[in-house]
Amino acid sequence: MKKTPLLLILAILLILPLVVKDVNFQHVMLMTLMFAGLGEAWNIITGFAGQTSFGHAAFFGIGAYTSTVLFYKFNVSPWVGMILGALFAGTVAFLVSYPCFRLKGHYFAVATLAVAEIIKQLFVSWDYVEGATGISIPVVSDSFWAMQFHRSKIPYVLIAYGLFVFVLFVALVIERNKMCYYLKAIRESHEAAEALGINTARYKLLAMVISSMLTALFGTVYAQYILYIDPFMVFGLEVSMKIVLLTVLGGLGNVYGPIIGAAILIPLSEYTRTLLGGTGKGIDLMIYGILIVVVVLFEPRGILGLLRKRSRGRLNYGKSTA
């Protein structure tokens, strides 16, 4: 992979929210960076390993609730809660995925969806974490320790950017490691991978644990940014579907895919909500659904696949006319 385009994208993502002073634009950039990072994390288990998960909202919610409860009840810094939330999410992913990985294809996908719903209902009924009422995070003065900044959204944007770069780095390391070849072998043919001596259970579990831990990190950022969470907000199916759809639209199995998908879906979602208010509820998903259908019909590998096909077409045309 060429480094120049990726470095250029990272530079643009960093500079834009610093240059454009519009508060709403900074909010959109924050959400775009967060969901691009979530897409990169999901891409590890689905894009690389071919194990479709519809339940990543469970790990996002676990990260949000772990840091929030620790701060709300024990005044523990969200940064500590972020790390503990990632560890907790990784543990849950390991315990849940081990039996689920015995299922294949759409059965596994449905199982992850069911697990996420079960976890959501547990939190809805759990009085210790305020159940369905949710938790309003105590507002304190601007503090890096408390991850609260009321005068500007820029610190939140920079934190989301830092986490996104970290997740992207992890994805790149995996992509260039032999682990990625094993995961892609599993994605192409589970039986063939086992015949080659690959420990499929081990590598699928490892991919899921890494993916879940990275997903949980953003749960903390979201909770501290919104300053309120409830089970329906952070464990909802909408979170999982956004992660899935933006990655599929951008292109599965490549680190550019989630970035492209997030750059389209999140601004579309946020600006239609701003412009149309309550009357525009769901319009962003309708438009996005049409985009998904159109892209998948012409190129199952997403927008990235379309761009590559067009690039190869130009190259072949240049050779034929030379």
Characterization of the model:
- By secondary structure, the chain is mostly helical.
- It has one domain (3-236).
- Helices cover 76% and strands 1% of the residues.
- The chain has 14 helices and two strands; from the N terminus they run H-H-H-H-H-E-H-H-H-H-E-H-H-H-H-H.
- It has a two-stranded antiparallel sheet.
- Helix 11 (237-250) packs across helix 12 (256-276).
- The longest helix is centred in the middle third of the chain and has 27 residues, at 200-226.
- The protein is globular, with a radius of gyration of 20 Å.
- The chain starts with a helix and ends with a helix.
- The mean pLDDT is 90.
List the helices and strands and how they pair.
Blueprint: H1 3-19, H2 23-48, H3 57-74, H4 78-100, H5 106-125, E1 135-136, H6 154-175, H7 178-188, H8 190-195, H9 200-226, E2 228-229, H10 231-234, H11 237-250, H12 256-276, H13 283-298, H14 302-321
Antiparallel strand pairs: 1-2
Number of helices: 14
Strand order, main sheet: write it out: 1-2
Task: Indicate the overall shape.
Answer: globular
Largest sheet: 2 strands, antiparallel
Evaluate the radius of gyration.
20 Å
The percent range for strand residues is under 5%
What order do the SSEs take from the amino end to the carboxyl end, as H and E?
A: HHHHHEHHHHEHHHHH
Low-confidence residue ranges: none
Q: What count of structural domains? A: 1
List keywords for this structure.
322 residues, mainly alpha, two-stranded antiparallel sheet, 2 strands
Short description:
The protein is mainly alpha-helical. It has 14 helices and 2 strands; from the N terminus they run H-H-H-H-H-E-H-H-H-H-E-H-H-H-H-H.
